[in-house]
Protein 1
Amino acid sequence: MDEILPLRGYGRRLYSRGFGLAVVDAGRLQRVMVVGSSSTTLLDLGGMGMEMQLSIAARPEAVSFDPSRTAVMVIDMQNDFGCRGGMFDRAGLDVAPIAHLVQPISRLLEAARRNALLIVYTRQEHNADLSDAGNEDAPHRIKHKRLNIGAAVVAPNGIQSQILVRDTWNTAIIPELEPQPGDAVISKHRYSAFFETSLDTLLRARRINTLIFTGATTSICVESTVRDATFRDYRCIVLRDCTAELIAADTMRSNHEASLLAIELLFGWTAESEAVIDALSRSAKAG
């Protein structure tokens, strides 16, 4: 049976539709909280506008976000990192942990698009002549030489390509996660998506204050971007089941876990994708 909560003075009614416990602030009845198993929907109906704060279970404590001011970041889910024939695979690394992210990220993106969240993809890629990879003695250039950055290769589909070079098969987004109309794509040439890119300008133009992170790898490009985002006062939520790290993946404590701990302590929050999807679903039903 639906529970109807009248909002006095606003001529509106909110139908909780069996979400669970609904708590209304005393007095002017401007705020309604709808509590679910893994998330809480807090509708702020005060003032002339209408904003929505969704609270989700997270570490080290619950965290809230306004969908209209939140972007989902898809970090470097590209062929070079997550597919056979890409840079990591050619270097002898097991890309399965990154490939396994496709399904949970896809589910998250579906929910985000249904709720009109901004989706931002990043691709790590360089000019064909590597002129944006640093000079010969730059750490970025040196560290990527062992991964054959810029090398000419034949992609699995038989076309000519180059490792970590833009406009090639290698740096294309994994097909199952292909960007859709309205999504933003940021080309970057360092680990952080903020370094010498238009990302900050894009986010501020959209009044974004919260970033939900997915992608690879956790301790390199994801964490680098999270740190730079935190320095710019964005609220960062990293999804544990939508990020992966190959470094030390077979040790007792992986780099993935170490990065998540650092983020939880000093840079933001971590959560599961289902908590975000559930919160978005509940907010859509409440609307």
Protein 2
Amino acid sequence: MTRLSRRRLRKLARHPLRTVRPLQSGLGVAAGFKRRFVRPSGPYVFVACMPRTGSTFLTETLCELTGFKRVELTDAYAENEQELDVPRLLDAWSYGSVTQQHVRANSRTVGLMHDFSIRPVVLVRDVFDVVVSIRDFLLVEGCGKWPTFFTTDERFRALDEAAQYEQIVELGLPWYFDFFVSWSGVARDGTLETLWLTYESATADWAGAVRRITEFYGLDGSDASVEAALARTTARASSLRLNAGVPGRGQTVLDPALRNRIRGYARFYPDVDFTPIGLGSG
């Protein structure tokens, strides 16, 4: 072994990140440079949402209203966890963007949102109605990209209706409770500034929901511009997965024993108020 190679080994031992994590290190430098020297032309309009909450319709309306690009800030929209992706955050830094992601408030996500000055809108829905809506979605659009639990079209369709609801409740709903509890902790601790919306309030008054978001981000949201944006989006509502969700449907469709099983998830979080998703305190 030559002296040069020994010296090289000692250098690598002192600075392992140069070889073990070169990509992460480089991204960290790039992120720091952009945040310091590049002035963004608009905010990240970010909707952290439960699936089946009208988020596609809402964010398309926000794109129509603001002229911002719809941007994916995760590396894929499939069965994967839709975690924030640093290269995509960097790409979107210098212009205004609109994003919807089914993402929980883990420490990595919250840290990146803090670093990139992301103030999320948190969109939730009555959890009983969610169960019914999930089943409708899986039967119509298939199971291939469902993010909260894994199954296939063949397996799901082979179950009877009662078993389908049971699978959704037992395998799919824990993600929803994780989502709600994690974002509730962020709101309680003031880690990030958040704006909370419910599906029920939004669908009852889309214009009011959009105006709340524009006020939150300091964007133009005159009544005329909001109504025009909603008119353009409503004209293609069927392609945006906006169904006529009837509040309270879960209470009538789901078996009482299954509804009690859903309520049982809340017992693990006695300090959390689940009223926004149709439950009381844990």
Protein 3
Amino acid sequence: MVLCLNLGQLLVEEEKQIILMKRRIAIFASGSGSNAQKIMEHFKYSKDAEVSLILTNNPDAYVLQRADNFEIPSHIFDRHEFYETTTVVDLLTRMQIDLIVLAGFLWLVPEHLLKAFPNQIVNIHPALLPAYGGKGMYGDRVHQAVLNNKEEESGITIHYVNERFDEGEIIYQARFKIEEGDTLEIIKFKGQQLEHQHFPKIVEGLLKKAD
């Protein structure tokens, strides 16, 4: 009886240690959060990492429902809190976040957050940077610009975040061919397929690299 109790206690302690050893991910998103969904799915049963927090600047963002579906806590902030206080940094620090993922987050990351998490913030962009990047270039605006310029290919870029929009060091790029007759919706679909395929794997790779 004592042996069984001790073994049970050991198993509980081992499980606690596994949880404590997990790398912790925070995801920032401003809208629907389809990439956030794919990352949450990817790490749902992982023994090595977990999505610990979802943050958004949009109280109506569907990503909040996605977080709730996965029973992941969320935090909503406004512009004052994000830029003029350390509330968000303090929260991320308190939760011992290892990697911050921007998945459709539209605001420029403030300097105090960059300093608190150096080389620990990554973003995904729906084009082949450095082309079609910069302030105001996101979502359909990017795809429409690619279409207007009659590009033969487009793709996605995963990169580290710095103090300027879309100018951080490139981590990974994937490409797709634009066929004659492709519409904005088709280009958008092709890009999202690449995002959903590669983003979770790149996030996992970055966490392993940091070990």
Protein 4
Amino acid sequence: MNRRTLFVLGLAVLCLQGAVFGQAKKKLPFHTPFDFKDSFYKKNGLDPKLFNTRLTPDDANAAKGKSKDKTRNKTRILEINGGYNAVGELLYYPAPPANFFDEAFLDNEKGDLAREVANEFRAFLFPKADGGLPLSPAPPNRRQDNLFDTSSGYLTDNPLGLWRITFPAYTAAATETPEGIAALAVLEERNGLDLDGTPILKRLSEIKDLEAQGFLVLNQRNEDGSDGFPWVV
């Protein structure tokens, strides 16, 4: 059996071997994820009152609860999604409790650091090529599961689990040149195909290699918010 590392990103992070997300009546192998308290957001450079959207216990994918972690509030997140970490291991993560624009960064050194961290750690969302929405994070627009850049000290340097959403797209060179077709064939053999019929990308190294060869572009929303919210928790 392959070793799998289960990450609960942003709200609770724990590495496990052979972990399986438990059923409702069984004891979970990690603390059920909750949103952060306002004070913890402010301590780490964000003003939660300026978030674009934020989960509350009244939302369909949340409920009221109590966490053992004193940095969390009473919003228990019920929705759990699956994806990949930087080295292609399976991870599970709670639905993002908030997304936000530039104005949510505090106007001080803590805010500057939060912005730096949020831009360093990227969450890769893969839009469908024929969907006409290259910068849309909507689940129906995705051709495969998300990939998270959990490298560069994620566990120690990113206490809020901040992410800059990034949208990889294959270039014409990838699908129309012999070199590109050969590179994609290798990935297809390794990872299989996505909903577009193009190779699934499971590792940060694969994204970097394709980008360096001109076979992949990494699109991001403008920081001024003109394309929609650029960051999520």
